[in-house]
Automatic annotation (TrEMBL):
<dbReference type="InterPro" id="IPR018911">
    <property type="entry name" value="Gmad2_Ig-like_dom"/>
</dbReference>
<dbReference type="Pfam" id="PF10648">
    <property type="entry name" value="Gmad2"/>
</dbReference>
<feature type="domain" description="Bacterial spore germination immunoglobulin-like">
    <location>
        <begin position="290"/>
        <end position="375"/>
    </location>
</feature>
<protein>
    <recommendedName>
        <fullName>Bacterial spore germination immunoglobulin-like domain-containing protein</fullName>
    </recommendedName>
</protein>
<feature type="region of interest" description="Disordered">
    <location>
        <begin position="23"/>
        <end position="46"/>
    </location>
</feature>
Length: 387
């Protein structure tokens, strides 16, 4: 089970989201290469000199106008909006996250990360261009997390510019082998898919909103309603899940007569037992399995999916690919070579993303259905990075 204690993987891997004229949106591009995220399951001490989250920048480089000359912004076209510093590259020196805002329709954001920041010629280690109504910040995990509008998503398509909203969140982490920040996935499945959203949601809960996210039973109940379409399902805590626990093992039973049982594993965000929100990290069902792709892989369409389960007339269930909004973007029947238990299957799933500017976080799920009423009877859900 994946845990979220913020002192995990980053530290290990470091040693291992013009005028008044309108202008068309730029296509989002990043100078990155893809990487799989492999969060650790045990805490480790922070290396000396490395702090987590945004830090105070050296005064000489903390003023946005200092960076305008370095990035070569142009008056009445774009300008540096903000500068933040942090240990983004796993060492004791500070790097700068510099955000450039463009004038015109979409308030396009360009994102830069520099090292050697007190040098008159700092080194540009990362850039991500063209985030429509974008935002970026340093996470509590020392990654860069970004937010932007997916103009073709189900919530924004055909909306006027004033009506679109941020709905696409990404995360970038330093890679020694690539010498830049690369896309990674947050281990969470529900109630949010990304670290940007999780940190924002924690702040909301701290203010008294969505207080159910601090309760393990209620979080599983909401999950079952959202992803399994099980209303008023019976939730049982089998391990952990208390006010001082940072992990929980649970089962949730379908409200249908003879309904199935799904196992749900959870962790507190950042291992915070003092009011941390619960995050679903694994969903499983006895007798059902996904063997490919691996959890938190980077996948592309068509994706080869393999697994096993109980087959009826050769059909194990349905494989679905869900995007960053939990929208289904591809599906296919999981057909085995026979009937009965432990029937293996393999399937090729073609999916179509609405976001064309890079990877996004999503899910690959295997669902089985009740022969009585067609409702979901079992599920295995894994987190993936969709290319």
């Amino acid at each position: 089970m994946v845990c979220f204690i913020i002192l995990f993987t980053f530290m290990l891997s470091a040693c291992d989201m013009g005028g008044g004229q309108s202008s068309p949106a730029k296509s989002p591009t990043a100078t990155t290469s893809a990487s799989k995220s492999t969060p650790s399951t045990s805490a480790t001490a922070t290396p000396a000199g490395i702090r987590l989250g945004a830090q105070t920048c050296p005064s000489a480089v903390s003023v946005p106008t200092y960076w305008d000359a370095i990035i070569a912004t142009q008056a009445n076209i774009n300008k540096v909006e903000s500068v933040a510093c942090g240990n983004l590259e796993g060492n004791t020196t500070l790097q700068a996250l510099v955000l450039v805002r463009n004038q015109g329709t979409g308030s396009i954001l360009d994102v830069y990360v520099y090292s050697n920041i007190t040098n008159p010629k700092p080194k540009k280690d990362f850039q991500l261009m063209g985030l429509y109504k974008g935002d970026a910040k340093i996470s509590n995990y020392n990654t860069v997390v970004t937010a932007e509008v997916d103009l073709d998503s189900s919530v924004n398509k055909n909306q006027p510019n004033a009506g679109v909203k941020q709905d696409l969140y990404r995360e970038f982490k330093w890679s020694d082998s690539s010498a830049t920040l690369v896309p990674v996935s947050f281990p969470g499945i529900y109630p949010v898919l990304t670290r940007y959203e999780a940190e924002a949601e924690q702040l909301n809960v701290n203010k008294g909103q969505n207080f159910w996210e601090r309760d393990a039973t209620q979080t599983v109940s909401h999950f079952a309603d959202k992803l399994l379409n099980w209303q008023n399902a019976q939730v049982t805590i089998t391990s952990g899940g208390g006010q001082t626990d940072v992990s929980a093992e649970t089962t949730v039973k379908s409200p249908k007569i003879g309904g199935g049982i799904v196992k749900v594993s959870m962790s507190r965000l950042e291992g915070n037992a003092n009011g941390g929100i619960w995050i679903v990290t694994a969903v499983a069902t006895d007798g059902l399995a996904l063997t490919a792709p691996n959890n938190q892989d980077r996948i592309s369409s068509p994706v080869s999916v393999a697994g096993k389960g109980n087959a009826f007339e050769g059909v194990v269930g349905t494989v679905k690919v869900l995007n960053h909004l939990y929208d289904e973007v591809g599906s296919v029947q999981a057909k085995g070579g026979g009937n009965g238990a432990n029937t293996p299957f393999s399937a090729s799933v073609t999916y179509t993303k609405t976001f064309k500017g890079g990877t996004e976080e999503g899910l690959v799920a295997l669902f089985t259905n009740s022969q009585a009423d067609g409702s979901i009877a079992g599920a295995v859900i894994e987190k993936e990075l969709l290319a």
